[in-house]
Amino acid sequence: MAESKSKVKITNYTSLNFIAFLLSCFSGVMFAVFISSTQTYYITDVLGIGAGIGNYIGTLSFADELLSMLLVPFVGAMADRIGTRPLLCLGFFVVGISLIGFGLFVHNSVFPAMYFWRLLFSSGLTCCMGVLVVMLLELNNSNFDIRGFFSFKSTGANSLEDFDQSDAIRQTLAQASESLGLPDEDDNNNNTQTNRDYDDNLEQQPLNGSLDDSEIVTNTAHGVNELNKKRNDGKRASLMGTFSGLGAVFAVFFLLRLPVWFGQNNPAGVALRRTYISVG
After folding, report:
1. Could you tell me which residues come within 8 angstroms of residue 57 by beta carbon, excluding any fewer than 6 positions away?
2. What is the per-residue pLDDT for 208?
3. What is the pLDDT at residue 66?
4. What angle do helix axes 15-41 and 268-279 make, rounded to 10 degrees?
5. How far apart are CA 19 and CA 15, in angstroms?
6. Which is nearest to 40 in space by CA: 59, 28, 24, 54?
7. End-to-end CA distance of the chain
8. How far is CA 67 from CA 64, 94, 172, in A?
9. What are phi and psi of 142, to 5 degrees?
10. 3-state DSSP: the chain helix, strand, coil percent, rounded to 5?
11. Cβ-based neighbours of 18, under 8 Å, separated by 6 or more
């Protein structure tokens, strides 16, 4: 039963799902780079604190990572229960609210206001980043044509007409086989699969102690490696890393320049607060 579930393909994966996946990779890392790069300046320019900055930044980062580790198992369980879309929308909404809260309500001290909004930001970002791996698995288990998407060609695998035509062809062949008294294609496939499973079991069984467990594991790992080569999952996973990197570059070359732009007519503290509100 578990093997049959793993072979199920997602047939309704569309270009919109793929774009949402890429933008999620881009935005998640973008927000993470922005918050980690500007917290020091927020403490010095907005709060006016000049001593113990390393202690404050270290404590905030530790609390951020600790909450993230505690929330990740619950995020994974909720992704299995309600899906990735609600968690992704909730996560980015919480991230935006937390950044706006930084700009509006953190004025005087690090504790408790800055801790509260930083932990709220951590919880939202954990929801966003925690479901990215699940979204990657959805992409890998779909029949979406990435090459056709980037070449601006229509993907026939996602066309409902193709599915209707293929179903009609199967029904016609089944009726012809039944009229001729031939065995069904499913029966042939089942018999062929049964013979293959029997042969695989014979190959995996040790003959008079000639095969040990390490050789069986080696053969299994080799099979998994060959399967990965055929599926091209590595190429799809590389898109996740590419767009995550682009998000970091965008944060460095654009978002981190916003305080300079706002600071042309405002003090440094006001400029940074407006940057947080704008990014949120």
Report:
1. 39, 40, 43
2. 46
3. 96
4. 160
5. 6
6. 54
7. 45
8. 5, 15, 58
9. -110, 170
10. 80, 0, 20
11. 139, 144, 146, 149
Taking each helix axis from N to C terminus, what angle separates 115-130 and 132-140, rounded to the nearest 10 degrees? 10
Give me 120's structure tokens.
């709220």
User: Three-state DSSP class for 52?
Assistant: coil
Map tokens 């049959």 to a residue: 4
| pLDDT for residue 123 | 97
Q: What is the reported pLDDT for 72?
A: 94
pLDDT at 202: 45
Identify the pLDDT of residue 213. Answer: 44
The whole-number pLDDT of residue 157 equals 45
* Cα gap 190→184, rounded to integer Å: 10
Q: Which residues of the chain have pLDDT under 50?
A: 1-6, 155-166, 182, 185, 192, 198, 202-218
Q: Look-up: residue for tokens 């029966």?
A: 187
Q: Which amino acid is at 227?
A: L
Tokens standing for residue 79: 């992704």
Write down the pLDDT at residue 116: 96
Q: Work out the burial of residue 79: count CB atoms within 10 Å of its CB; fewer than 13 is exposed, 13-18 middle, 19 or more buried.
A: buried
**How far is residue 21 CA from its own chain's centroid?**
7
- pLDDT for 216 equals 44
* Residue 259: C-alpha distances to residues 63, 230, 276 (Å): 26, 48, 9
SS3 142: strand
Contact 243, 237 (CB under 8 A): no
- Nearest-5° Cα angle at 95, 94 to 97: 60
- Looking at residue 1, its pLDDT comes to 46
Half-sphere exposure of 29 (CA within 13 A, CB side): 18
d(CA 277, CA 42) in angstroms, rounded, equals: 13
- Quick count: other Cβ atoms within 10 Å of Cβ 102? 28
